Amino acid sequence: MTSPPPEFTGPRIEIHLEAGGVDIHQQRPAIARALVGLPAHVALQRIPGLLPICGGAQAIAAARAVAAAQGSPQQPEADPDSSLWQEQALACGWRLSVDWPDLLGETRQMAVLKQLYQAQDDSQRAAALGQMLNGLDGVHSLGELLAWVQDSDCLAARVVRRASEAAIDQATVLPLPALDAAGLRLKAGAALAGEPFDPLDPAGSPLEVGPLAMGRDPLVPELRGEMGSTVTSRLLAQVLDGRFIARALLQNRAEQQPASASGDWSLARAGNANSGMGCAVTARGPVFHQVRLAAGEDAATDTVADWRVLAPTDWHFGRRGPVVRELANLATPTREQVALVVASYDPCAPWTLHQAGRAEHHA
Fold it and tell me: I need a labelling partner for 256 at 20 to 30 A (CA). Which of 33, 73, 83, 241 fits?
């Protein structure tokens, strides 16, 4: 088999800590080069293969962008595809059973992750995810949440305790557009409209769009108000979002819409014919696709003139993003401190730390 072109190599993040500061390099799929010139319906079929991480959300955001570009933007739906909740559950489960044990140097919890992957229905998925958050379902206030962190032997609670002990928390002001659907769409639209478009340096960085910004669990807004944006508060928001996802698997999805993604799911770009933007929500935050089409005789013959993607990892690990900002504020960061900062933003790609001539790889 011939080697794939460079744009199809796997995504990765390289974090360089040097005397002169922090530099982050990302390798991301070159969507435009892969899709430009293809019929729109063929391009949509290629998206899950090009962007397999959170592939369901990527496909829905892409379809919404194409629909908007063709003049038929889709209205918000409470549950456009139940597989999205399953996808978010798997992403959260991987975080809790693989990434977080790695932070503590403990054995990965593959047995419970296997239960999650092999679950036959949403009830079983919720139960498997709940095992990773033992005792959290009975937490109803911020005080009870902090008590759970201190008293629980659950691995998730121990990770949060480790972060609190690592002396890295520096409260920051969470950018308001991340909490408002209309404002977030404006920020994403501005970044996607940039010329030349650079997904690794989104306009307006730094911006947070993860679980702390989404505020889907009822306790997250209070957590954000009390603690601001810190490593500890972001990890706690991920924990609470895991609870939210487990509940959403069982409850009425119409009541489970995240504040940061409510409102129109897709829209035509004003003053830009045959161009549209679409959004879908992942466990890491909303992902945006923008498509510009070359019109054919009908929708079936429209072809892709340009395709752009902006994912949560692009915001967080951009060259001026919040990860660069936080690492730069640490005088002499340890490997553990870097790992905890990175985990609090939950990248969708493996990362490597380059420091003092050494490279350490992380899944």
Answer: 73
